[in-house]
Write a structure and sequence with these properties.
0% helix, 6-stranded antiparallel beta sheet, 7-stranded antiparallel beta sheet, single chain, 13 strands
Length: 173
């Protein structure tokens, strides 16, 4: 077991740091015909530099999500997080529930992932989700943290206004 947290992405003091081969993307269900509105920007929220995802999540036209995703491996690759207990997010929200989805090399179809829900309060807070806290969706095997490809935070599958800021993503021992 490692002795320290591993920071995968941080926006401390306006300087973005990322794990090697990692990149952020923001998008919505419009990539598959939905009509949710998403804005994904760099921001400062309550004194912290961060990235912020906000917009209207709607189930209209078969949609229902907006998402900010941290790709940790190039296409077809994987990131080994098996030495850690789970993922930690420094977030600021609007008092709504959000989802964290993990995709691994075991996920083939777009809807396959491992999912957990958390509440993002209207203050900065650290949210820790252990690997064992993720439920497989459309998969029969448990999450293998040795095969991670993406960590994502989503406004998910209900009608609401999403507004979540993220200052840091880390793995914890």
């Amino acid at each position: 077991m490692p002795k320290a947290r591993l920071v995968l992405s941080s926006f401390e003091a306006g300087q973005e740091s990322l794990a090697p081969n990692a990149r952020w993307r923001g998008f919505s269900d419009r990539v598959m015909g939905g009509v949710s509105d998403a804005t994904f920007v760099r921001a400062t929220v309550d004194g912290k530099d961060c990235i912020r995802l906000y917009g209207r999540v709607t189930r209209d036209s078969g949609g229902g999500f907006i998402q900010m995703a941290l790709d940790l491996a190039s296409r077809g690759g994987q990131f080994d997080a098996s030495a850690y207990s789970g993922a930690e997010f420094l977030v600021h929200g609007n008092g709504e529930d959000y989802n964290c989805h993990v995709r691994t090399a075991d996920c083939g179809w777009y809807d396959q992932s491992y999912r957990a829900t958390f509440r993002a309060e209207p203050r900065w807070q650290r949210v820790r989700i252990p690997w064992t806290g993720f439920t497989p969706n459309d998969l029969t095997i448990p999450l293998n943290p040795g095969k991670i490809q993406r960590l994502a935070l989503l406004g998910w599958m209900r009608e609401f206004t999403a507004d979540i800021a993220l200052a840091e993503v880390a793995l914890y021992p």
